[in-house]
Amino acid sequence: GKDRIIFATKEDHETPSSAELVADDPDDPYEEQGLILPNGDINWNCPCLGGMASGPCGEQFKSAFSCFHYSTEEIKGSDCVDQFRAMQECMQKYPDLYPQEDENEEKSSKDLEATSEEAPAAKEEKGSS
């Protein structure tokens, strides 16, 4: 009942369309824009954020990123340490979603126990290449 099928005839296609195109709204948050919208706001829908704004730590990410973006400190973002710390603490609760890329970071004893058996094999693989 919700769908309706309309058949177009050859004659329907012979007459020019009277449809008018509407100009793009530069402030439309659903329109593909860059990271920063023309009005200076952050485009949280930008694919360049890789979904960070909508994950389980999205609010912490938005808070930290907003703070950095609008920071007027001489060392930009130096006033945002608390927000970035909160984001990092949240991300550590979801290691499958937010893998730690830096292998040199301090690991908790739980992580060390889990990887202690894998470490010798990893060293051998690195040495052989």
UniProtKB/TrEMBL annotation:
It is found in: Mitochondrion intermembrane space. Residues 22-31 have a biased composition (Acidic residues). Residues 57-93 form the CHCH domain. Pfam families: CHCH (PF06747). Coiled coil: none annotated. Residues 12-32, 95-129 are annotated as: Disordered. One of its GO terms (biological process) is protein import into mitochondrial intermembrane space. Keywords: Disulfide bond, Mitochondrion, Oxidoreductase, Protein transport, Redox-active center, Translocation, Transport. Residues 120-129 have a biased composition (Basic and acidic residues). One of its GO terms (cellular component) is mitochondrial intermembrane space. One of its GO terms (molecular function) is protein-disulfide reductase activity. This is MIA40 protein.
